[in-house]
Amino acid sequence: MASAALERPATDRRTAEFLEAERALWAHHGLAPREIFVDVDAPRCRLRVLEIGSGEPVLLVHGTVGPGSWASLAPELDGFRLLVLDRPGWGLSTPVDFRGADYGRCVGELLRGTLDALGLGRAHVVGGSIGDVWALRLAQLHPSRVGRVALLGAGPLVPEAGVPGIIRLIASPAGAVLVRLLTSPARVRTMLRGAGHGASLDAGQIPDVFVEWRASAARETGAMRHERAMVRAIVDGRSYRPGLTFADDELAAIRAPALMVYGTVDHVGSVDVWQRFTGMLADAELEVIEGAGHMPWFDDPAAVGERVQRFLTAR
Q1: 51 partner at 20 to 30 Å CA-CA among 31, 76, 103, 121?
Q2: Residues in CB range of 142: below 8 A, 6 or more apart
């Protein structure tokens, strides 16, 4: 059971500051999303969704860079009702304790509950980074609810992708310090350089308003504290705990058409890894973007947006 059209919770000073940084980010891209709150019971949480445009519904699930990462891609996806999810613990969504949970099943049920609450029988799903896992688990566990799946940037989809150094650091005792450092715009820029986006930062491709929003998310909300708790629940040293990555037979059973967009400067996996991965899926293709980093649309939003648009509208 799930419900929608709930009121925004009471806003304190810090939340108001975050919401102003968020408004400025979306306004920079010419957008003013409408917020929707939904209650989901499995597991119990209240999630916030930002709605943009109209048309076929597309649910967007972000990675550790946060839901504001979609602001530069959204203008390139014309003719869709974009539903930008604040994952649990991000923005104004309440957190979920993933300790002891079957992570894959848990996130699949969270997205199913979100679709139920929004009154949607079926939607396309776009994931980024660990959001790829969420998108593909929904397609695996509830195939009738998913149209097409776009996976943007590499994620913890198969064991051979490995655990990125930044994720191992977040999971370590030093991660408690790191999440506090990310309240600084300078540290956010360092994180983006480590994700392969240095050239785009230097060229002004990634606007300051995004960096300010990302710092505000860490400073004014519990986003990074909750993200670290999630990471610690799914990472065991240099490997992932069971229930996160996909086995070959699980991949082979997924029938939803899938597109993966991978940048050659993304350090998660490799072209060979993602060629094997997409080859295991029943209907999938790999698009490689030369020189792009972990969030490939950060480096070329028009090209990535055109490719995703073409994929989502294919028949």
Answers
A1: 103
A2: 108, 111, 112
Q: Give the residue extent of every domain in the chain.
A: 2-313
SS (H, E, C) 159-199: HHHCCCHHHHHHHCCCHHHHHHHCCCHHHHHHHHHHHHHHH
Task: Please give the CATH superfamily to which domain 2-313 belongs.
Answer: Alpha/Beta hydrolase fold, catalytic domain (3.40.50.1820)
| Strand ranges, E, within 7-164 | 34-41, 44-52, 56-61, 80-85, 123-128, 146-152
Task: Answer yes or no: pTM beyond 0.90.
Answer: yes
Could you read off the pLDDT tens digit of each residue along the chain, which spans 315 residues?
Answer: 345 556 666 678 899 999 999 999 999 999 999 999 999 998 999 999 999 999 999 999 999 999 999 999 999 999 999 999 999 999 999 999 999 999 999 999 999 999 999 999 999 999 999 999 999 999 999 999 999 999 999 999 999 999 998 899 999 999 999 888 889 999 999 999 999 999 999 999 999 999 999 999 999 999 999 999 999 999 998 899 998 999 999 999 999 999 999 999 999 999 999 999 999 999 999 999 999 999 999 999 999 999 999 999 998
Q: Contact, 309 vs 77, CB < 8 A?
A: yes
Report how far residue 264's alpha carbon sits from residue 291's, in angstroms, rounded to the nearest whole number.
5
Question: Cα separation of 21 and 27, whole Å?
Answer: 10
92 to each of 95, 290, 314, how far by Cα in Å? 9, 35, 34
In the block, residue with structure tokens 């009154």? 119
Structure tokens at 96: 């979920």
The Cα-based distances of 287 to 154, 240, 261, 284, 305 in angstroms read: 12, 26, 5, 10, 12
For residue 205, give both structure tokens: 């491709």
